[in-house]
Amino acid sequence: MIKLTRLNGSMIVLNPDLIEYVEATPDTIITLTTGQKILIREPVDDVIEKFTEYKRCINTRTIVD
Fold it and tell me: I need a labelling partner for 31 at 20 to 30 A (CA). Which of 18, 45, 61, 64 fits?
């Protein structure tokens, strides 16, 4: 999960696997695979960084029996 900030200042936690695409218009708009759009304060590059960090963390986890 990644933490993001809505335009009104409230924090949301988003499952990055639901991100279909991210736009800068000039606000950052995240469109989810469900069709829902979320406007956030963070710039596109920050979203990409958070997404990449999330995926890196998921891919380096090992399953412990």
Answer: 61
Q: CA 17 to CA 58: how far, in whole Å?
A: 11
Which residue is listed with tokens 């009104």?
8
Does the structural domain 2-60 have CATH classification 2.40.50? yes
Q: Name every residue whose Cβ is closer than 8 Å to that of residue 62 and which is 6 or more positions away in sequence.
A: none
Q: Where are the domains of the chain?
A: 2-60
Residue 63 above 60 pLDDT? no
CB atoms within 10 A of CB 39: 13
The pLDDT tens digits of the residues spanning 20-30 come to: 999 999 899 99
What's the predicted TM-score (pTM) here? 0.85
What phi and psi, each to the nearest 5 degrees, are found at residue 31? -105, 125
Q: Give the span between the Cα atoms of 2 and 22, in whole angstroms.
A: 14
